[in-house]
Amino acid sequence: MADVYTGAEPDLAALLAARPAFSMNVREGLSFESVPLNAIADQFGTPVWVYGAGSIRARFAALKAAFAGENLPVHIHYAVKANDHLAILSQFQRLGAGADVVSIGEFLRARQAGVAAADIVYSGVGKSAEELETALGQGIGQINVESAEELEMLSGIATRLGVTAPVVLRMNPDVDAGTHAKITTGLAENKFGIAAADIPALYAHAASLPGIRALGLALHIGSQILSTEPYAKAYAKAADMVRALRDQRLSVEVLDLGGGIGIGYHDEPGMNLAAFAATIRRTVGDLGVRLMVEPGRYLVGPAGLLLASVILQKRTQKRFVVLDAAMNELMRPALYEAWHGILPVDPALFHTAQTQADVVGPICESADCFAQDRALPDLPPGTRVALLDTGAYGAVMSSAYNARPRAASVLVDGGKAVLITPRQPPQDLWADEIVPA
């Protein structure tokens, strides 16, 4: 499972209690950051993504406080792939975060949101020559090189442009993050990074190449990590590598520690930030390097929800609750077998009898399923439900499959809801298509 969890499945009350941004009022029903979800659905329809600016700020502050508690000057680069909406990116830019990007589109999005190019890290295994030219031309702060081939290509581009590329080599530490195979990135069999055994020679080569400034090392072992143990193993290997490079009289100024900080999708607390910060201090805190992390899910996952309405309940050999949201909105359950809590918005439904149900969407795929055998009350047509913790890898992975227009998005802040993405009109689905004569 993507979300490693061994406890009993939480009931509705436990789900609600574990999420302080949510509250239940007997008249207005379920609210998020003091905004009733019924009011959002009435105004903007469903399905609709709802994000909380207050939650984003609080989670960013908690991570900064954890580092400060260990006297660690760690710079935070938000992983844009988790949620690339300009309204979200702008929140992090105002908080002083940099950005971690994996495509030129994400780079340009971050720039549009006001993030300085010097505060952007460019990761990813397949950067094209055109993408690297654009990033270098705008003065990107760091490029995480993932192969010897990429390093040579980058040297040629930088030399031709007459610039110096700030390079960090991504080391694959061959550490199992203990998470779903599809979101593990630090094993030798994964496509990511450079084998640790190859780093010393390649780093020395990078330091000699024209157009290249070798700054340090990076690593990233996976996503949705709930234990500090894999971090400790990976960071210890990184520390050994830094010392080995310095023994060769090579300069190492930067250590990019990646991201992957897990959250609680059930009613568990998720990663212990104090323990995470202590692990960093214990393993790499004495290296005298510039430290950075690249969290995404931790910062925005619990800061978002997908608000949907029940179309109907279908009863065959089992009960199916069919929503107006589908896998084209939220792909994670189909892609990663991911678990998301589901809360009814109507307060009366928290106190009625519950039976097992599969919660599904209307798409013609058996994989279009949000939950199986979930204990839920009777949910008649028109009932509204909130799919929890969908601020990361939700809307950013959505599509128009089955010719379903993209959902609207709303940002709540200070008790007010503001539309940040209008619902896509159906005719926009084919507006740019050309039928040849």
Automatic annotation (TrEMBL):
GO terms for molecular function: diaminopimelate decarboxylase activity; pyridoxal phosphate binding. Residues 54-300 form the Orn/DAP/Arg decarboxylase 2 N-terminal domain. Its cofactor is pyridoxal 5'-phosphate. Keywords: Amino-acid biosynthesis, Decarboxylase, Lyase, Lysine biosynthesis, Pyridoxal phosphate. It comes from the Bacteria. Pyridoxal 5'-phosphate binds at residues 260, 294-297, 393. Belongs to the Orn/Lys/Arg decarboxylase class-II family. LysA subfamily. Specifically catalyzes the decarboxylation of meso-diaminopimelate (meso-DAP) to L-lysine. This is Diaminopimelate decarboxylase. The gene is lysA.
